[in-house]
Amino acid sequence: MLCVPVIIGLVVATERTDVGHLFGFAVVLVICAGLSDFLDGYIARKQGITSIVGAFWDTTADKILVSGVLIALVSVGRASVWITFIIMTREFVVMAVRSVVAIDGKVVPASLAGKAKAIVQFVALGLAMMRLPEPWGPFYLDEYWMWLTAAVTIASGWDYIVRFTDAVREVGRTAKP
Fold this sequence. Notes:
The chain is mainly α.
């Protein structure tokens, strides 16, 4: 989470300066953040030291990273407002589901669809920052990838909703007024 303001600053500064390689530094930081997230989760699972709080902070950090970078990319014309809205809405909905289910002390584990979504999102962010100089038809490669990202994001969000609808309903029935 600490590198998100730096990444945002690099993205925004690229459009305000002649230093074009700042996007490259931003991509390196996004890759480092993604790899550290993967390694942190892998080590926690391998060591059996997962927790509800750890899962919450891990997913929250991911959401802050993706949302922050997307907002920066929108500000410099490298991402669609609508795709950003779709991605951020999915993140808030899944976070809400996780929070409600956590009331009963349960953890919503990351699904294969959620992991695929994360990979596709990180690739989309990197492609948008390192945009190819020429479009492929009417759009740049990163724009096509962003639409794919929106579709995968919607599908993975739907997967979470379907898988945990019963758990959310159960919390609603057992909650004391």
